[in-house]
Every structure is written in C-alpha cells, then in structure tokens.
C-alpha cells in the first residue's frame, strides 16, 4: 500500500535504506485549516503527530463536527444495509471532486432516513396485517371444514335417534331422564371454542398441556397446513397447524388463552354460522388482494428511493469519510495562543517538501486567506518512521520482511535481497520444472486479471494469494530453473541439453551401481545427468549433492548477513560494532563453516575420497593428529590449527572489550559537562539510532555486560544451529522429489500397466488430485514457511534489528481503503 499512500509521487530511489525523513511544523491560519488538511490528504505525504494526546475526544476543538459526520456516516451505513437487503448495488463512479455542500447533505440525509424509516415501518405494518389475514383465511377454511363435517355428523345422528324413537323401545333407548334433558334446551351444556394457529413443532406439547390444565374437560381438533406460512410476529416461514379447542366455563377459557400466549399461538375469531363464514372468507380474500397491492406499491416506491440513493451513495460516502478524517486530523493540531492559528507537527519524506509547499499555497489561495501557511523543518533527536516507497512488485516482498519487524530508520533493508533469495531458497526445496510451470500458470492468471480482481471482494485465502502473486511468479521461475538443474519434470528426467554421458556395459547395469556405467560422451552440460535417475546410486548421489549445496548456500547467506551488519555500522558511524562485532563474527563463522565450505569445493574439484565428517570432528577432538588419507591439500593441519585458534580467540573478542569501551565512552561524554551544545539533525539521529550507544543518563555496566554476553552466546551457538538449519533445503528437496516419484510410479504408471481405459482414467484423475493437493498446495506452503524461517531467523538476525515503526501518512486513499475493510 506504500505506493498508493504516496500517491505515486516517489522519485527513483534506493530500496536498500528507507527514505530520508524530516520533522516539519506547519502554522496554519484558522480560515484555511480545513482546505490545507484536505490538500495534504490528497497528497498523502505527512504523518501528523497528536499534539492533544492529553485531551479526551470530547475536549478537543472539533468534537462537534466529528459527532456530526459520525451521525452522517451512521445514516449512510443504514442506507447501505437497506440496499443490500433490497439487492441494489451502489453505482460506482470515477472519484471526481464533489461540489455538494456538507450542510445540505446533512439535511438531505436526515430527510431520506426519515422517509425510509417511515416506509419500512408502514411496510412492516402492512406485511404483518397481510400475514395475519393469510392466517385468518387458513383458519376460516380449515375450521369451516371441521364445523361443516361436525354438522353433517350431528344431523345424521339426530335422524338416527328420531328413527329409533318412533320404533320399539329397546335396551339402547334413552331413559326418561335422558329424554327430558335432550328435549329441555335449558338443561343442555353450552360449549365455547377458540380457533387459531400454533407452530407444528409445538402442537403436541400444546395439546398435552391444555388437556392437563383443564383436567381433560376439553376437546381439541388439529388440522395441518400444507405449506409453511409467514408468522406475523417473527416474519419467518413456519410450519403450523390450525386448532379448534372446545371448552366449558370461563375458568377453562382463561387457562386456554394463557397457554396460547405462552406457545405463541395466534388466535382468530370464528362463527358457527355457515353463511357468515362464507361472507367472512370473501371479505378476507378481498382485503388480502388490497393489502398485496398496497405492499407492492410501497416496495416499488422504496426500491425507487434506494436506487436514487445508490446513484449518489459512493460520492456521499467518500465525502463524509474524507470530511470526518479531516476533522480527526484537525483535532490532532494544537491551537495557537492567539486562537487564530493551528500548529501541526508531523513526519514527511525529504523529497516531498516541494509538493507539500505547493499544496499549502493552493490551500491558501482556494480559501482566500490573506496569510499563507508557514512551513518549517524542526531539529529533533526523535527516531523518525520508516518509509520504503514500494511498487506492486516489491511490496509483497517488503511485507514478508515487515511481518518479522519494521526496519529501524535507514537500517539496511533485507527486502532488497529477499526479492531474489526468498524464491531461490523456496525453489531449492521445490525443484521440479513441471510443478514450477503449474505455479507459473497460476501466478500468470492472477497477474493478467489483476485489474479486475483488485476491485473485487475476495475471500481471505484468495486475497492473500492475490497479494503475493509476484512472489509466486518469482518462486515459479526459480522452481523451473532448479527443476532443470535437478532434471525433474513430475519426477521424470529428460535429455534436455544433450544425450547422457554414460552408457551401460551390459543389460544388467541398470540394477547395479555406477560401476556398471561407462562414460562414452562429454559431461552433461547443465544440471544432473538423466542417467542418475532410476539407478541404485541415485539417492546417495543426490543426497550428497543437495546436502553439500545446502551448507554452501547457508554459509554464503549468513556471511551476507554479517557483511550487512558492517554496512549498518559504517552508515551509523559505529566503530565499536565494526571492530568488536563484525570482525570477530566473520572470523568465527568462516574459521569453522567457511572452512567446511572450502573443503566441499576442494573435494568436488579434486575428486578426493576424503571423509569431511572425520576432518571436521577431529579438527576439534585431535587437532594435532595427522590427517592421512583425509588430507585434501598441503599444510592442511597447520591451516586447521590456525583457524581453530582464531575461532577460540574471536569469542572473548566479541564478549569482553565492547562493554568496557562503552563505559569509557560514557564517562568521557559526561565527565565535567553540565551543558552540551545542540547537535545537528544527522548527528542526533545517528546517536539516537545507534543501539549500542546506551546514551542514557545512567549507565548500567552490569546490564550492558549481560546483554553483550547473551548476544555472544547467541551468535556462537547460532552459528552451529543456523548452519544445521539450512539442511532443511536438502531434506525438503528430497521429500518433494520422492513424493513426486511415488505418485508417478505408484499411481500413473501402475494404472497404465493394467491396459484398461477405465482404470487409466481413474489413475489420471487420482494423479492430478494428489499432485495438486499434496505437491502444489501442501508442499508449496511447507517450502514457503521453511524459506520464511531461514530468512527471519538464520539471515536477518545477523544484522537486522527490526524495531522501527512504519510511516503512515494522512491520506484519503488509505482512509477509504481501511473503511472498506
């Protein structure tokens, strides 16, 4: 994002050290303060300091304006939520300067919100009434069917009773008292009933509780509704049953009503009169039609209003965000004693001074201010922020370094070397030019479509992969290169540059060691000879090659880290770090592992059979013994004794002198001094950024000595462990090669051997899936993490402190980007 924040204003520069920064002070007239901050937000080259850190947000000058724009932002968020629910996408327009008056926009947003809230409330009421009418119609239909069915059954029973009364009396004929009760209407019990709907999942508990609460003195009839209905209260679709509960007495009715409320059962009135039922169904159907038309009209009007808002939403949103950020920045400025000026302080790159001054002049002219803004550079001992002006290619590599720690101001930046070394170390572990081509195609897809994808919302993993598309591109290119060296294409070797230099003595030599091969042609010109693949000596040969290569690369990269510590010490004029850190570290590392690297190269060039393990072990255990057949060059024993002595001397060299010299410097600096002259900016920054100066008021010698002891022990032990850590290059390269070979031979070739088209198709599909899933995803991630560790721990800890802080300038572009997140 650095290139976006800087507005593409960076001149050609060196990425090795961060941009030269300056602390600037701006004295801005009140009348042009808003326009000045707005212009600086467009420019994006000043990181303002908060000069009101001791004040709460409510005590600051522009708290009321921030509250106003916060309320406007809330209304815009409300509009966005409503548009998302309605499926309306805001119209994206090119970012042009809007001429909208902020006060008019505030009034307009308030009116639109009130209108939209009223529409939503009316629509909610109409929708609830509509859902209630739909449920009422269902109750009328289902309960009407039950009552008509009951009426038919009662009529048939009455006729049966009358026919029995006209005939002869039998044992089943009602007694005299029963007849009197049947004939006397006043003695019959009058039953009441309640109708409504209850959720289907609650029907059984509902029925059981009513039965228990009334001691069984009820009759309940349930009828299932075929399709789910929208509940008027919750607004969600629910499966429901229509119920009719017959009861006797007011107490039973009260209990049933309470149970209905507890179960969320909606009750609706119903009449026994069949004619009235037909009229009610007709009336409810008519009201449903009217309600539906009213809802559709309301939704159309609401959709039209949201579409009108959507046409200008992006413009309004950008304006409100920018204005809010302007007043947030103005709140960081301190008010002058005269209350006519605002004083601002902030960091800016030195190269941006001219552009900042131009922006200040434009602001004074646009705001018709009689007095311009005063721009001046302040001298300070404060550590400036770190700013690297990156582009879309280098930003991903810089992010890899920044994830470990932001470089201290003008410290040597590992990101420059990471652009090459990171993909190269990855490729050593991932070397296969077939897999490299697959990675290359994936990276090219992201790069070709980057304009389209950069404006879209992507998933977390996809967005992370898209951000590192150029890292993947470099990893793919280096993987193709190392794959050609290893001569592996999905584990299959090819004679790419020339025929193999070896031939078989007889037919059985492929199962023998290399003793069965004779050299008949010149040495294979580039990479591993294809004849090694598949032979019995393939694994010992490639193991030896890759292990020694890992040590050479590791020692070279660690030496590079130590050399960079020299450039840091030279840049910050720290001679102690040169004499008592860089030189002894370089001697110690190369006396042991630099010497091992030299032995490896000598052994390769001379074809010697010397055992390097034996040489290195007995260099420590028996340094005076004769080497015998393990001697690689004349006077090797003498060289080893000298190197061992240098390694032993370099440890106290690192440990002892530096703390005592720092103590002497501190005494000399403060002896007899009450007042010291002010330093220049460069000198003060150098003193501040020198981490070993310990320029505090109190010098704790014990603390400095312990720190130096820890640093020395860490380096001495780290020299061994870091060198061993680089053997992961060999281990992961071997694992990747063997996995690729297993998948090819045990899946693809095995399926091919069956001479069955179905088995072959299945085998190809399985091979593709395991290649993509294991080798192109899991192995890529594994090699990436191991390369990351080698850079962070083994390389960067030799010189990189990473205790700086990033330069975050005030920029409208970054404000809008963060709000979108």
Automatic annotation (TrEMBL):
One GO cellular component, as annotated: vacuolar proton-transporting V-type ATPase, V0 domain
Domain of life per record: Eukaryota
Coiled coil: 102-136
Cell compartment(s), UniProt: Membrane
Membrane topology, from the record: Multi-pass membrane protein
Gene Ontology MF term list: ATPase binding; proton-transporting ATPase activity, rotational mechanism
Main location: membrane
TM regions (residue ranges): 424-448, 469-486, 549-567, 579-602, 638-656, 757-778
GO BP terms in the entry: vacuolar acidification
Keyword line: Coiled coil, Hydrogen ion transport, Ion transport, Membrane, Transmembrane, Transmembrane helix, Transport
Family statement drawn from the similarity comment of this UniProt entry: Belongs to the V-ATPase 116 kDa subunit family.
Function: Essential component of the vacuolar proton pump (V-ATPase), a multimeric enzyme that catalyzes the translocation of protons across the membranes. Required for assembly and activity of the V-ATPase.
PANTHER family: V-TYPE PROTON ATPASE SUBUNIT A3, VACUOLAR PROTON ATPASES
Protein name stated in the entry: V-type proton ATPase subunit a
Species name: Salix koriyanagi
Lineage: Eukaryota, Viridiplantae, Streptophyta, Embryophyta, Tracheophyta
